Amino acid sequence: TLGAAVAPRVMLPSSLVAACAALPQPAARSSISTILRKVPRARSVLVRDVGQANFTSLRDDQGRAILHYDVGFPISFNRHTFPSTFNIDASETPPIILSHWDWDHLHAALHLPHLLDCPWIVPDQGLGPGAARLARILTGKGNLLVLPTSARIRFTFGELVQSQGLAGDLNDTGLTVLVALASGRSVLLTGDADYMY
After folding, report:
1. In what helix (H) or strand (E) does residue 114 lie, and over which residues does it extend?
2. Distances in whole angstroms, Cα of residue 139 to Cα of each of 2, 68, 133
3. Do 132 and 141 form a contact (C-beta atoms < 8 A)?
4. Residue 40: is its pLDDT beyond 60?
């Protein structure tokens, strides 16, 4: 399957390779810092039940989402793991930090159109056809910010970095976020990165 990730093939047709080369140049660190500085300190973390996928939200005192970390829905063969009800407030359009370009971390954006209106901070990784489609949509809306590979962005209540796994490994080169909640407790959001990274 090509899915959203880079296909594990030695050679791909050049037309497919061209279609997947959708990421713009990395954004200025200051552009990403400006977005993250506007996010208030989180009161809580909501790990949403989306079945075999990842969709986590930082929330304020009123329980409103102020930042999403991944917005995944299950891929087709895991569809049965999706809950019978899923509620989300479509008026909430906080920034989204995408850990990595796997389908089960971004798929909700194609089912919940309001997520396409959020600013997305994403890793500079290879894309498969599904991820490339999403990247083109976000770029067209001016909502895609690619984190420079070696950037370490500190903001009011946290830090954003790219994991230092082997090049080409989407899971271990994804974005991780360390967040200090209003309670003083810390949360480390890692996507699918192995513990050693």
Report:
1. none
2. 22, 19, 10
3. no
4. yes
